[in-house]
Design goal:
about 200 residues, Rossmann fold, 2 domains, 5 helices
Length: about 200
Amino acid sequence: MKCVVVAQDEGLQNLIAAALESLGMDATLIASLGELPATLQELSTSGILLELTTSVKASSAEKEIANELVQLYPFARCKFVEGKLFVLGKQSSIEAFVHACQEFKPRTTRRTPREIKHLSVRVFAEGIFEGGEKCVTTNVSEAGCFVYSVQEWIVGDRVRLCFSGNGPTALGTVCHWHPWGNDRLIPGIGVRFDEATTGV
């Protein structure tokens, strides 16, 4: 198992890595969120651990890119206080975080380039053939897209996307969901297509 540790300070990198290794997890160390996209494309990863001060110091652009990526893996922020590692987020301890990583199949992120495209699309839940939600994409690649949506979704939901005009119909799986009301993120779903889709 590998975990990507994002920490600007080399000393903190080593302390976090040692804590993970004591629980049977290898750590790949990077110094900034800006390095995260390329790292996740090349490295089959089980989780991401972000040191809190590094997170606070990151630029808005780095945070925006990273926000989408961390939805795809077990993720937590952490900090050292008086020599003890505290984990912040869904997992309440380093042991709980490692356990979540153990249950996650390691993977890389998409390798196909993503384009900013605002395309009209109607989204249907699996088994629904009428109505659908009128939406728009914010970005598209051969492997998937992000669709602006205010509906509630669950990661793993199956969807059918009907692009307007002469665009294709694509089948896919919801790989992450940003609910409406979180002012830091555009509400909607990241969809991974069942197979590469061109012409959208």
